[in-house]
Specification:
This protein is α+β, with helices and mostly antiparallel strands. The chain has one domain: Jelly Rolls, CATH 2.60.120. Helices cover about 20% and strands about 25% of the residues. It contains 5 helices and 13 strands. Strands 1, 2, 3, 5, 10, 12 and 13 form a 7-stranded antiparallel sheet that branches. A 4-stranded antiparallel sheet has the order 4-11-6-9. Strands 7-8 form a two-stranded antiparallel ribbon. Strand 7 and strand 8 form a beta hairpin. The protein binds 2-oxoglutaric acid.
């Protein structure tokens, strides 16, 4: 699915933007679904997901971030996306396995003008796994420029291994100021997919534009990896997205609740 150059770049950088993984019209349809889900949810739930540690120096007043976890329980369009062969073909090339499980997925809408930033972090503390195989893909459902608060990532940071994080529900890099200057912005178009490892330092800026930024984020793991802490359960976790189950995942109830 991917070229050897793309796979090599992923291993070098710890992230890879795959342009045009979805057609523009597919991204546009999913964007409409995402915004309709968010409107329905907002009638009944709090959809706010700004990190307690987020601070947006450039925004006057509070920032906002809408989220919806487990999007496949809200629209079948996202069930289909979960097993999209283009997405999983690329994931398989990058993860080096053809047996891939769902960890969780979520929609994010960063509203115009005051969309919340994400502080720099690695993903592993949110769901520690024995082999750190967990890999994310952000599918962009509309354009993500620097002004709209696109992702920023530190190239090569996955080679540093597990770094110390602060926080209890959201985990952010303890020593983020040293890494801020190293982060590069990864702007994307609708339909582009950004893959990154759970060890890659990343975050994103505030949305200062006049349009929402809309993304769907899928977290996957290799089927022969397993959680070491009972943290971040979600419905459908462990579902085979690609290949077959090698049967090692311990039940969450057998795991400690802290690392
Ligand atoms: O989509 C973004 O802006 C960043 C999301 C992110 O860093 C995360 O969910 O771990």
């Amino acid at each position: 699915m991917l070229t050897s150059e793309q796979i090599g770049l992923y291993h070098e950088q710890g992230f890879l933007l795959v342009p045009g993984l979805l057609e523009a019209h597919e991204a546009a349809q999913l964007r409409t679904e995402a915004h309709e889900i968010m409107k329905r949810l907002a009638l009944n739930h709090d959809v706010e997901a700004t990190w307690s540690s987020a601070s947006a120096a450039d925004v006057d007043g509070p920032t906002a971030l809408q989220h919806c976890h487990d999007a496949q329980y809200h629209s079948a369009a996202f069930s289909r996306l979960l097993t999209d062969p283009r997405l999983l073909g690329a994931a398989s090339d990058l993860m080096g396995t053809s047996d891939i499980q769902l960890h969780h997925n979520k929609l994010f809408v960063k509203p115009p003008g005051n969309g919340s930033p994400f502080p720099l972090h690695q993903d592993w503390p949110f769901f520690p796994h024995a082999n750190d195989s967990t890999t994310a893909v952000i599918v962009h459902l509309d354009e993500a420029s620097e002004l709209k608060g696109c992702v920023r990532a530190v190239s090569g940071s996955h080679h540093d291994g597990r770094l110390e994080h602060s926080g209890t529900s959201d985990f952010f890099l303890s020593d983020d100021s040293a890494r801020e200057a190293e982060a590069t912005t990864v702007s994307a178009k609708a339909g582009d997919a950004l893959f990154f490892s759970c060890l890659t330092i990343h975050g994103s800026g505030p949305n200062l534009s006049d349009e929402a930024r809309t993304t769907w984020l899928l977290q996957m793991r290799a089927a022969d990896d397993y959680p070491t802490v009972d943290r971040h359960r979600s419905p459908g976790q462990g579902m085979m997205l690609l290949g077959t189950n090698t049967g090692r995942t311990p039940p969450p109830s057998s795991l400690p609740t802290t690392a």
